[in-house]
Amino acid sequence: MCKTNFNLLWAIMLCFCCFQTAHTQIKVVADRPRANYDVGELMNFQVSSTESGEVTFIIRRDNHAPIIKKGSFYLEAGETYNIPFTFEEPAFLLCYVNQGDFADRSGVAFSPFDIVPVEPEPTDFDAFWEAQKAEMREIPSNPVLTKHSETNFNVTYDLVMDHLDGRKVYAYVSIPKGEGPFPGFLILPSFGGGANHVTPGDNESAQINAIVVKMSIHNADPAEGDPDQYLPNDISSKEGNYYRYALMAGVRCLDYLFTRDDFDGQNVGVMGISQGGGLSLSMAGLDQRIKLLVHSVPALCQHNGLTYDRESGHPYFIFRSRTTAATSEHEQATADAVRYYDAINFAKRFKGASTLFLSYEDHVCPPGTVMAANNQLTGGPKIIMHSRETVHETPDYSIKRFDSIRNFMSVTRNSNGAISQDLGYNVTTNTSRFLGSVNAPFQLTTSVTLEEQILDLDSSWEKVSGPGKAVFSSPDSSDTSVRFDAPGTYILKYTALDDRLIEQTERWVTVHDYITLFVAE
């Protein structure tokens, strides 16, 4: 056989093998497109395969928490087998199925908007972080700017500043061309620290016509990488945790932004994905100057979940303590220390608008930890973009984050002709008054828009907090009145659901707004 024919035959065989592999698969999905259920409600994980054979399954919160249910069954090719399941508390869960060398998983949620933190915050949480900021600000920043690159839309500079313990803060600053002043955005990095792990934010700056500070959390030029990334790091000490350097570097970058004459002095946001998402969420609560939060699959949430046999967020501090130090004393010290770095506790303090990109099959930053933190965001409008079939990524983040920013920071819209002007979801609630009396009705009118077009969506109202009962005249309508039977301060939550494209995209959106009302005797 000639070499040409041999290569052709090999290519045909390879294609055949690939074809066989591509069509030999096992699949598990929830029996509802949105995979959402009430606590205690019976659901089914539906399993199918192109091959007959034995299938094993496990159901658990994440890769470290205990297995909740497991089993096996024989599955006929082309048939569907139902695994019945229910759960008695708010949670996200994963069902893993295996058949030979093939596997799949499905994520579901039971009353996800009711997921709460596993424990209270430290009583000196605010005092600790105020002390860290004060210590950092005693050190002059001594900023040094060096031109890095230029595009049609902006100029980017290397920024180096002095930091805690003789370290440096490294960042890229991209400044729009044209007449300012401009809004500002701080972008926090995902996990890692090799060469060029952090790159300039010139694209983000162009998309939203804003000054963008894209920072590293390490003590080295991001173009070169840091061989000592994440060191030193004593997770059993609240002063020794490496993320102390990261969060204080974020504050230092914001301090620098506020010194610039071309910054508008008011409109500032944070964004990031994974570790960067968790850092963004933390920064939003740490620094009251931040007005907008955009985060995707955030880490750093519910650190002590594993202590209670719950899911824990990356970087799994309790699991690391158990597998490295392996002493009860170290684990307790770690559990006490990492409460100061839990994004849940920062989220409670943020009062601005937010957009979250959430993945139901995420095994790196479990969605249960993410929602425990997100449910603490009650200070402003909130958009959640749910993705049922993605793992530790949300493809919509790359584009739709900018749409959301243009909505909540209208000053970022530009007219340079080369940048998208699309707008995302927005929500507005109007009331004739915020102060009333017991049993006197408050009128509430809410509208949800997409691309500035009003949407007619399924809606609902509920009480988040307050001393008495809240009675809504039309709890499933965007327009309603509400009465209270006791004086005090009440927070109400509005929710709208847009799942019009779920069958084609396996994605949907929930839009939330919060309103605070004061009731006198």
How does this structure look, described?
The chain has helices at 3-22, 125-137, 202-208, 243-257, 275-286, 317-323, 328-338, 343-347, 367-374, 397-408, 502-505; strands spanning 26-30, 36-37, 43-49, 53-60, 67-75, 80-85, 91-99, 102-110, 144-150, 154-162, 168-176, 182-187, 211-215, 263-273, 292-296, 353-359, 382-387, 425-431, 435-437, 442-450, 453-454, 458-465, 470-472, 479-484, 488-498, 507-520. It is an alpha+beta fold and 521 residues long. It has 3 domains: 26-114, Immunoglobulins (Immunoglobulin-like), CATH 2.60.40.10; 125-410, Rossmann fold; 425-520, Immunoglobulin-like, CATH 2.60.40.10. Strands 9, 10, 11, 12, 13, 14, 15, 16, 17, 19, 22, 25 and 26 form a 13-stranded mixed beta sheet that branches. A 5-stranded mixed beta sheet has the order 2-8-7-4-5, with no helix packed on it. β9 and β10 (154-162) form a beta hairpin. α2 (125-137) packs across α4, α4 (243-257) crosses α5 and α6 (317-323) runs antiparallel to α7 (328-338). It is globular, with a radius of gyration of 25 Å. Mean pLDDT is 93; it is low at 1-22.
